[in-house]
Write a structure and sequence with these properties.
The complex is a heterodimer. By secondary structure, chain A is α/β, with parallel strands linked by helices. Chain A contains eleven helices and ten strands. By secondary structure, chain B is mainly alpha-helical. Chain B has one domain. Chain B starts with 12 loop residues before the first helix and ends with a helix. Classes of the chains: A alpha/beta, B mainly alpha.
Chain lengths: ~260, ~375
Amino acid sequence: MAFFGFSTGALSLGNFQEALRLVHGTSMTAVELSALRLPELPVLVDALPTLDLSQFSYVSVHAPSRFSASEEDNVIDLLRKVPEKWPIILHPDTIHDPEKWAGFGNQLAIENLDRRKSDARSAEELDRWFDRLPNARLCFDMAHAHQCDRTMTEAFRILLRFRGRICQLHISELDSAGHHFPLSYGSIQAFSEVASLIPADSPAILESLNPLHGAGNDLQKIWMEREISRASKAIGRGEMLPDSPVSSGLAAFSSTPIPA
Amino acid sequence: MSNSSCKGQGGSPLDELAELLQCRWKNIDQAKQKTLGTLEQLSKIIEGKPGADTSVIVHGSLARRECTRGSDLDWTLLVDGVADASVQQTFLAIKNALNDETAFSQLGLEKPGRQGTFGALTFSQPMMHYIGGEEDSNSNTTRRVLLLLEALPVGERLKAFERVRQGVLRRYLDEDRGLLRKNTDGTNLRWVPLFLLNDFARYWRTIAVDFAYKQFDRGNKGYALRSIKLGVSRKLLFASGLLACFWCDPEVSKDETLEPRKQSLVSCLDAFFSWTPLERIASFFVVHTRGSQSKFIRETASELFSAYDDFLDLLNNTEKRKHLDELKPGDEETDIVFKEARMMRKRFRLAIQNMFLHQDSPLYKHSIEKGVF
């Protein structure tokens, strides 16, 4: 069974409650609760016991993408409150002391990074992180791999070496400045080239920025389902939904890029 | 003659081959050491200047790690990012730092070549998009092919270079419709990328034609030295490119990890082009010498590297180099230095011919079937 869903941060920046309301009633069976910015983490952790996540068979939490060494212990303490069966997605370049993170074992999933970063972009760079965190798993971000190398050769290398560690995928399109966008023809083509190397049961979390944020809920839900359909096609798990009358109207909404 | 002596080395394919053959190529070794020192200096000079989507790349003898006295500095700032006019400022800052007389004396190098192809700002898109066709100028072809065959990123910013090299490689493979497909008789897969091979062949012929053009344009000035370089270091470059194409075939590279998919070939070629031309050639001989008693392979390798070692010895000799550079047309037949150089060039040519075209060579079938017609 393959799980698809969205990152709450992509659907509604900094507002996981609103994002969860939006996905209610859709076909999504997976979700990533995003706390990319440090102040979001305590709010999210406090809310965890109250959230209705019964729709989802797979839940993960994205840790903050930036914090200081003095804040690291506090971040770790907060993340310890995340249920053990939920993977914690972490950008390895935020780590100050890897030993402190080793205790999470295979609950921790480090993510391959985009080309603005100076680490964790290639198979070799990831290898060094898995040396330090040998039980950690991998959140394979296809957009980051595609942005680092448009030929998907680096994605191929990463998959060859670490496909056994993959616990979830991140799917979206990324421009050269690191902004997330909905999938295009080019990214679907590129992702499909390595699809056969991705474990069939890897949950797929979309980070495509919601271009309809603020529009009617029904319209946003249609867009989400279509984007999931495109992601499914990109990783070889199904056909895209046929064009709907709504899709032509989607172009009228412009997207506001957010940082990766 | 050669300063070769029989002593093992360790490290790169070149060192591994030297160990297998129980040889040491002193001039190749010295040139490599000199290059490493120069590259270190160069990295310091450009430190902090290139931006995130750029790489400073050196070509020529520096990229081959074959610096000798009189080697020059051919460099380019490669840009692979969003449109940004400020890269011109970066380029000028690097150019000014490198044009400083002190910098050149520190590096022990000559300034860029007179054609102006190098010491330049280069953008990734034309290199990747214009392969063949009207827009593929002589300079564009040169930059692209040298990016694969003879380029080394310097300093801390390497990613732009790596991205573009992989992108260019992928372009060659994508347009090659018969690649990784079975032959018409339903037998073996075609592993050799012919679009890439044809562009290497075209580049080699372009150099040869431009050799005659320079002779015409410069009134034979520098003819003798250029002629020797064409027959040795330029020929080595082409040979290493031709070999790279054949290397994609697991039968040649003995690489059991190769998969019949384009990413696997890009990965293989990318790794192969990370070696210097001499190291690429050495890789072939290492793979086919290891576990084999073939006298032919060993002798061909010894002769090829010994001749090349002599070539570097010649280039490192300021007097002989100057003599050849200033040799007047018509004096070649009687000139002792030129005759000695020509003999070395002939030894190199015969060794290269044996490597690719001798019936005992593992490359023979590929050279005939793919390299010629």
